[in-house]
Design a protein that fits this description.
Chain B: One of its GO terms (molecular function) is oxidoreductase activity. Chain B: This is 2-oxoisovalerate dehydrogenase. Chain B: Keywords: Oxidoreductase, Thiamine pyrophosphate. Chain B: It holds the Pfam family Transketolase_C. Chain B: Its cofactor is thiamine diphosphate. The complex is a heterodimer of chains A (336) and B (327). In chain A, helix 7 links the parallel strand 6 and strand 7. Chain A is globular, with a radius of gyration of 20 Å. Chain A starts with 11 loop residues before the first helix and ends in a 23-residue tail after the last helix. In chain A, strands 1-2-3-7-6 form a five-stranded parallel beta sheet, sandwiched between helices. Chain A is 40% helix and 9% strand. Chain A contains ten helices and seven strands. Chain A has 336 residues and is of the alpha/beta class. The relative contact order of chain B is 0.12. In chain B, strands 3-2-4-5-7-6-12 form a seven-stranded mixed beta sheet, sandwiched between helices. A five-stranded mixed beta sheet of chain B has the order 9-11-10-13-14, with helices on both faces. Chain B has 327 residues and is α/β, with parallel strands linked by helices. The chains are: A alpha/beta (336), B alpha/beta (327). Chains A and B meet through helix 5 and helix 6 of A and helix 3, helix 4 and helix 5 of B.
């Protein structure tokens, strides 16, 4: 197999780290389903099949200064930006120590200021204008950071996508909009979602380049996001990147996808599963040896086991902590 | 002390805050070169440049959402909705996002934005340039809603809103913009958000209201005083969260309370004030709590006859005050 990563300036070590992050995201996701099906956690929203795009993109950003606004399937992105397995487990167990929300939000609603992971909500695509606002602040302050925001193809129909994209286009702001097109918005397939052939067709309306690329190939995603990041930092404005992939699981643990798609279709998509295709790549290019792979799997399992145990034992927030942090706590009496 | 108009107090507060803190910037429709459709931002584009007095696309959800994003990384945005009526496309951003950012992140993130919007009728604005929209937001913990009545309060409260650590909706009565004038010091001062202000002391009846209606109540109170009836006028100033202490204190003192709003009556801000008094002052009351408000129709019509029928005025307030005093 041809070594493609050298040509785009990626070392073996970096490619290995990408694969490891993808694998970690997948194994965490699988564990969450087990925990859900065994009655230990109430809810899972899954990112299986989307790890390549997430990790490829995250590695193309400057993880020491860029802001990310992930959506609810982006375990791979938040891991790459510094959220730990323990923190993710605390989140799904809704424990007080969860850094995303202290047990207030459903899983997947990421947020962690120290890693510049911007807090997110459930109404979809509201984060696009936020990313644009962060990019506006970067431009105003002449800072070098950019913002990176993700969303699904269904979400690209929301007004906030269009309003945010247009605003970014008008003011040439350093923001990357990445659509994770996993073919389904819960049950509704992409051909019932988009009037255009592609999400990226929408870019021209907002004065930015738009690309549709293989979301199962982390190297291709890396390349396009890197170029978009460079453009943004040069002051050349926003980019829309549509990454094509397939949602391998039901929408959430509360969804049964057998009612709207066939098992054959899912099985066919699994042949393109980036965990399989990218594993083949790293093995055949000699980046990952059998020995290293076995060690990696063992380490990841141990990490997840420890995180799961820790999170399961950790305390919930006290009931009355529900009252905290409606407003800033530093205010004087009478101003609340 | 200089006497200036309500809208000039808005401009003065904005200018002083932008001079004080380089993180403060403004965004909205027509606020730049044109200086705003009401001229609230006049001269600021020239003084601070197009980046800090930013003309946005016609896109209210983006105005709110972009402001939220910038606020989360340390800026102090002041967004303008051209009319309060046009805030509707931004409601998801304001309620689902701004109001919940601190809470949902367990105090990790915050969202110190101000959204200014002119509201209110009596200017031939018909259904979509006259509305009071505060009730839509007045049950959303995480938000604060300020609705000042005088130029002095406008300046002190707008500066406080810009310095506040949480999202503030700042509604300015558009009929007050040029019709209401008052003394405003050139000094830097802030007034507390969340505190009502007793605009006139009196022992016989209490009128609790906000915005332009405060002036109608004050005018009526002077007429009643000639007949020996002393009305206390409480200006809520912040309509959410409410200053329960001042409300209860005045209601208990006079025992007769009239609540006035230009908004529709049902589910309005004064309905909540009424509930607070009912819960706390039952044995102090000498008359049923009275509410004077707009009729239950969607919004005020254009024709002057129908607009006047909807709109609050000093005569309506005076009549209601006399009836209550005589109860």
């Amino acid at each position: 197999m041809e070594n493609r990563h050298k040509n785009i300036g990626l070392s073996d070590e970096t490619v290995l780290a990408m694969y490891e992050t993808m694998l970690l995201a997948r194994r965490i996701d699988e564990r969450m389903w087990l925990l859900n099906r065994s009655g230990k956690i109430p809810f899972v929203v899954s990112g299986q099949g989307q790890e390549a795009a997430q990790v490829g993109a995250a590695f193309a950003l400057d993880r020491s200064q860029d802001y990310i606004l992930p959506y609810y399937r982006d375990t791979g992105i938040v891991l790459a930006f510094g959220m730990t397995v323990k923190e993710l487990m605390l989140f799904v167990f809704a424990k007080a120590e969860d850094p995303n929300s202290g047990g207030r939000q459903m899983p997947g609603h990421y947020g962690q200021k120290k890693n510049r992971i911007v807090t997110n909500s459930s109404p979809v695509t509201t984060q696009v204008p936020h990313a644009v606002g962060i990019a506006l602040a970067a431009k105003m302050e002449k800072k070098d950071y950019i913002s990176f925001v993700t969303f699904g193809e269904g979400s690209s129909n929301q007004g906030d996508f269009h309003e945010g994209a247009n605003f970014a286009g008008v003011h040439k702001l350093p923001v990357i909009l990445m659509c994770e097109n996993n073919q389904y918005a819960i049950s509704v397939p992409v051909d019932k979602q988009l009037g255009s052939a592609k999400v990226s067709d929408r870019a021209i309306g907002y004065g930015m380049p738009g690309y549709t690329i293989d979301g199962n190939d982390p190297l291709e995603v890396y390349q396009y996001v890197k170029e978009a990041a460079d453009r943004a930092r040069r002051g050349e404005g926003p980019t829309l990147i549509e990454t094509m992939m397939y949602r391998l699981t039901p929408h959430t643990s509360d969804d049964d996808d057998r009612s709207y798609r066939t098992a054959e279709e899912v099985e066919k998509a699994k042949l393109e599963d980036p965990m399989i295709t990218f594993r083949t790549y790293v093995k055949e290019t000699g980046v990952l040896t059998d020995e290293r792979e076995q060690q990696m799997e063992r380490d990841i399992q141990q990490l997840i086991d420890e995180a799961t145990d820790y999170a399961e034992q950790a305390p919930y927030a006290k009931p009355e902590q529900a009252l905290d942090f409606v407003y800033a706590e530093t205010e004087q009496e009478g101003t609340r | 002390m200089p006497v200036i108009s309500y809208i000039d107090a808005v401009t003065m507060a904005l200018r002083e805050e932008m001079e004080r803190d380089s993180n403060v910037f403004m965004l909205g429709e027509d606020i730049g070169k044109k200086g705003g459709v009401f001229k609230a931002t006049q001269g600021l584009y020239e003084q601070f440049g197009e980046e800090r007095v930013l003309d946005t696309p016609l896109s209210e959800s983006a105005i709110a959402g972009v402001a939220i994003g910038a606020a989360m990384v340390g800026k102090r945005p002041v967004a303008e909705m051209q009319f309060a009526d046009f805030i509707m496309p931004a409601v998801n951003q304001i309620i689902s996002e701004a109001a919940r950012i601190r809470y949902r992140s367990n105090n990790d993130w915050d969202c110190p934005i101000v959204i200014r919007a002119p509201y209110g009728g009596g200017i031939h604005g018909a259904l979509y340039h006259s509305q009071s929209v505060e009730a839509i937001f007045a049950n959303q913990p995480g938000l604060k809603i300020v609705m000042p009545s005088t130029p002095y309060d406008v300046k002190g409260l707008l500066k406080a809103a810009i310095r506040d650590e949480d999202p503030v909706l700042f509604f300015e009565h558009k009929k007050a913009y040029r019709s209401i004038k008052g003394e405003v010091p050139n000094d830097d001062y802030v007034l507390p958000i969340g505190k009502a202000d007793v605009k006139r002391k009196g022992d016989d009846i209490t009128v609790i209201t906000y915005g332009l209606c405060v002036h109608f109540a004050l005018q009526a109170a002077e007429k009643l005083a000639k007949d020996g009836i002393e009305a206390e006028i409480v200006d809520l100033r912040t309509v959410y969260p409410l200053d329960q202490e001042t409300i209860i204190e005045s209601a208990a003192k006079t025992g007769k309370v009239l609540l006035v709003t230009e908004d529709n009556k049902e589910g309005s801000v004064i309905s909540e004030v009424s509930a607070i008094i009912a819960e706390n002052c039952l044995f102090d009351l000498d008359a049923p709590i009275q509410r004077l408000a707009g009729p239950e129709i969607p919004a005020m019509p254009y024709a002057p006859t129908m607009e006047k029928y909807f709109m609050m005025n000093p005569e309506k307030v005076e009549k209601a005050m006399r009836e209550l005093a005589e109860f």
